[in-house]
Specification:
5-stranded mixed sheet; 7-stranded mixed sheet; alpha/beta
């Protein structure tokens, strides 16, 4: 089997590094740009060694100017390049928000399909690393709401490797949310595998009593919740959404038709979060299959707290299991 020679166990961050390296090797039009991505290799070392091996013309250290970085990437894409932009931390993306939603997301429609903008914007997101203000936010719903943008988030090293390849190959702009507190979680990566479609959800664990849907950093938490629930005789199915826009509702629907119950989990605030859209759509699609209301677990409708309080803010095992118990009690 090819897996014997090509599979290796990598941290999620290293899997992204290897994916970027492969993209740089395969296509001379691929560029990487961002604050400290070159000589430093990024604050999380995700781009470590790439500038050394590919040069400063392809792995570019930029000024601290997110709007300028994204605007430059748009111009490069118009000239045939495939820029991969890093936003150093989630909370730093907002100076570039206008460029992303007003220009990047709209250009294809504005040009009646004649212009393509193959830009990937990497955003390390979420909490759990003990960081200061503006370093632990989950802004994915803001971008998933914008037509013209694709939004994805891997939960494991294998998906990180392959989804980055697919995002770079896409002719549409992709916001690639990287769960920073999972950067050091290791997983098997088979670099010779044939990946599934970028926007297809994955059943990470099968079950019969209730469906847990999550993406990015919360998939691991949901898998831990399913393991804990099994000790009490409860069978939970875990669906890794992988893509927040578009959403693979068919996979979620199939699971909920089997289990009759759904709990959606994400780090971002529950209020106007991605879980609200999933809950509404699945309620429409599965109304006669549901044995309980669709429940949501997430952050609170408040600014992300100081690091000492983040464990109280972030949804953890107990909050997920509490919602599971509530759903099963109907």
């Amino acid at each position: 089997m090819t897996a014997q020679t090509s599979a290796q166990k990598l941290p999620l961050a290293k899997a992204i590094n290897e994916s970027l390296r492969r993209a740089l090797e395969n296509d001379p039009k691929v560029l990487i740009m961002g604050e400290d991505v070159g000589k430093l290799g990024g604050v999380f070392r995700v781009t470590d060694g790439l500038q050394k091996d590919f040069g400063e013309d392809r792995v570019i250290d930029t000024p601290l100017a997110e709007s300028g970085i994204v605007g430059t990437a748009i111009g490069l894409a118009l000239r045939g390049y495939r820029p991969v932009v890093e936003i150093q931390f989630d909370g730093f993306v907002f100076p570039a928000y206008d460029q992303i939603v007003t220009q990047l997301a709209k250009m294809h429609a504005r040009a009646l399909g004649k212009v393509k903008l193959p830009v990937v914007i990497r955003i390390p997101y979420g909490g759990g690393i003990g960081a200061v203000e503006h370093h632990s936010e989950s802004p994915e719903a803001l971008f998933a709401h914008v037509a013209g943008l694709k939004c994805v988030s891997p939960s494991n090293a294998s998906d990180a490797y392959w989804m980055m390849q697919q995002a770079i190959e896409s002719d549409d702009p992709v916001i690639f949310f990287e769960p920073k507190r999972r950067y050091w979680d290791k997983g098997e990566v088979d670099t010779s595998a044939i990946p599934g479609p970028l926007h297809t959800a994955r059943v990470a664990r099968t079950g019969t009593d209730l469906t847990l849907v999550a993406y990015g950093p919360m998939v691991k938490t949901c898998l831990e919740a399913a393991a804990a629930a099994e000790e009490e005789g409860k069978s939970l199915e875990v669906v890794d959404l992988r893509s927040m826009s578009p959403i693979d509702f068919d996979t979620v629907q199939k699971s909920v038709e089997k289990t009759g119950r759904l709990v959606v989990v994400h780090e971002a605030p529950v209020f106007y979060g991605s879980g609200a859209e999933i809950a509404a759509r699945i309620t429409e699609r599965c109304f006669y299959h549901l044995e309980a209301p669709v429940l949501r677990v997430g952050g609170f409708h408040a600014p992300y707290p100081p690091a000492r309080l983040e464990e109280e803010y972030l949804p953890g095992l107990d909050r997920v299991l509490d919602s599971v118990d509530r759903a099963l009690a109907y």
